[in-house]
Write a structure and sequence with these properties.
13 strands
Length: about 375
């Protein structure tokens, strides 16, 4: 069997959001209009300084650098140091055309194929599974590494803070994963796109990067971290992210991406560097999300929901202890659309994911209806 046959035999799942359309129509019939809390799409303005940088760099007749400009890589390294306590060499920073493409193509870029395992959490963003299938590898959903037996997977995905649950893996847990993987020569990749959005200040509940010295012992060998500016800076439309970590692995990714023409547009690189250098706008956005989160959490709990995990990210992981589609239907009648938990794995069958990325007025409308 060749590689293309293997991919065909691991058919991609149906796009899950299509199943939500009937409920979107029901919610849209509410007299006050729909409150869409199903997708974590930023709705607030892109910072003026970032838009200005994009405009000023718009005269870009030449090809951009796959590697990213030195200015961009230095800005990313500076942000990692200031905000996360991570000391990364700018040479080990590689732009991504939005982190979703990196999630989807990383197994392929690293040479995964038939017989290789790609491991990800049991409750997870569906693209981890899709990326394994695109490479022709075996997707394995598990939260326990011991369940893998003697087989060393090609790579292990972590997602802390988690989408959809908002759960945070403490440093001690991350250290154990790193140790286990290094003993077996396995690459560990943590998708950290919500890392600045931690809400629980209790000890051990704040997000920590897998590249933090307390986790990795000061060495990034065998580790990658994936970061996005979509939520932090309202840049989802720019497709602005990056990967960093093990310099040798980053160099391998760069070599393949050069051949594949995976180049972030030059104006976006310029805008991204400005966004990474500026923490003030990110704090303003964080405050907006904190207000919306508080309002929705109170409203859902008063309506009879229990909120599990949710100590970080842009979502509430909510349950009424009933099948998730029954909850979706109930809320749709109130004009509120949420994501069913089983989109993210069978373990989510009795939860829904509630995004607090809607505008203030829409969040207030949802709270009033509840």
């Amino acid at each position: 069997m060749n590689g293309s046959d293997a991919v065909m035999n691991r058919a991609l799942p149906d796009f899950p959001w299509d199943r939500l359309e009937p409920y979107k129509k029901i919610a849209g019939r509410h007299p006050g209009g729909i409150v869409d809390l199903s997708v974590g799409t930023p709705v607030d303005p892109t910072p003026e300084s970032v838009r200005r940088a994009l405009s000023e760099a718009s005269d870009a007749p030449g090809y951009p650098l796959t590697y990213g400009t030195p200015r961009l890589r230095a800005a990313a390294a500076g942000w990692l140091r200031r905000r996360l306590g991570v000391h990364a060499d700018p040479a080990a920073v590689l732009p991504a055309i939005g982190t979703k493409e990196m999630v989807a193509w990383l197994p392929t870029l690293l040479g995964a194929g038939p017989g290789d395992q790609v491991v990800f959490p049991r409750l997870a963003y569906p693209t981890y599974d899709v990326g394994a299938r695109l490479a022709g590898a075996d997707p394995v959903a598990t939260d326990g590494l011991l369940s893998l037996g003697p087989v060393a997977p090609k790579l292990i995905w972590l997602n802390s803070p988690s989408n959809p649950t908002g759960a945070v893996l403490p440093a001690e847990h991350l250290r154990k994963v790193v140790s286990w993987a290094r003993e077996r020569g396995v690459l560990v990749v943590n998708d950290e796109c919500y890392i600045e959005l931690g809400w629980d200040t209790a000890p051990g509940r704040q997000p920590v990067s897998i590249l933090h010295p307390d986790v990795c012992g000061g060495s990034h060998e065998g580790l990658l971290a994936l970061h996005s500016l979509s939520k932090r800076s309202n840049l989802a439309g720019y497709r602005a992210g990056f990967v960093t970590g093990d310099p040798d692995v980053v160099a391998r990714l760069l070599a393949v991406r050069k051949h594949a023409g995976m180049m972030m547009p030059a104006p976006v690189q310029a805008a991204m560097a400005v966004a990474l250098d500026d923490d003030a706008h990110a704090e303003e956005q964080r405050a907006r999300y904190a207000r919306r989160r508080a309002a929705l959490k109170i409203a859902f709990e008063r309506h009879g929901f229990r909120i599990d995990h949710s100590e970080a990210s842009l979502y509430l992981w909510a349950t009424r202890e009933e099948p998730c589609w029954d909850t979706v239907a109930h809320l749709a009648e109130l004009g509120i659309l949420v994501a069913p938990g089983d989109f993210y794995g069978t373990d989510g069958a009795r939860h829904v994911r509630v995004a607090f990325t809607a505008t203030d007025d829409r969040v207030a409308a949802a709270a009033e209806r509840l």
